[in-house]
Design a protein that fits this description.
- The chain is mainly alpha-helical.
- The protein has two domains: 148 residues, Jann2411-like domain (Jann2411-like fold); 32 residues.
- 50% of the residues lie in helices and 8% in strands.
- The protein has six helices and six strands.
- The protein has a two-stranded antiparallel ribbon.
- The N and C termini lie far apart (52 Å).
Length: 193
């Protein structure tokens, strides 16, 4: 497993998780209401005060679209420009802190900012950490048939093509196996006795 900057190790998955709350192929919404947004925020350690509003949900969905653009960006320059825009739009506030007995370290999200802004800034910084330490080639959209989930490839040799090797990878392998068997059967039928 590849280690990125300490800032991006967790937050890079924040971007994946938000982008994957909507399946663009099946048009399946996995974040249908503010309560689902609250679950996502809490799962990633974002402190919330009460259930998010419908406006928060709309902002999170807009962020989801912006982050998907990053995963599909044609080059690093475009991806970084998109991420810089997210940082500006969500009021990033770089500052050092030594909370909870930890040594001094960088935070970029204003702790007083709305939860969606905190999530946005952390997710953007996570992806920036990946891109600036190992390059754009780590950001992918799944090659699986009818999938298109986003993921960060943390394999050593950057060989991952599927969001889930166990699901999409196995489906692709099974489909390729069936195609080879059909091809072999057709060759046998077409060859002279």
């Amino acid at each position: 497993m590849v280690r990125f900057t300490s800032y991006s190790e967790g937050p890079a998955t924040w971007a994946e998780d938000l982008v994957n709350t909507y399946n663009v192929v099946r048009e399946t919404e996995k974040m249908p209401d503010p309560a689902a947004l609250a679950e996502l925020l809490v799962a990633h350690g974002v402190r919330i005060r009460g259930v998010p509003t419908r406006k928060d949900l709309d902002r999170a969905r807009a962020l989801r679209t912006a982050l998907r653009e990053v995963f599909g960006a044609p080059d690093e320059e475009t991806a970084i420009a998109l991420l810089n825009r997210i940082l500006a739009d969500h009021r990033a506030l770089p500052h050092y802190t030594n909370h909870d007995g930890e040594p001094w370290h960088l935070h970029v999200a204003d702790p007083q900012a709305p939860p969606v802004d905190q999530y946005a800034v952390n997710a953007a910084m996570g992806l920036l950490g990946v891109i600036t330490t190992t390059g754009m080639s780590r950001l992918h959209i799944c090659d699986g048939n009818r999938c298109e989930e986003a993921f960060v490839d943390i394999s050593r040799n950057q060989s991952r093509r599927y969001c889930s090797p166990q699901i999409c990878g196995n489906r692709a392998s099974a489909a390729a196996h069936r195609a080879r068997r059909r091809g072999a059967a057709a060759d046998r039928r077409g060859s002279p006795p």
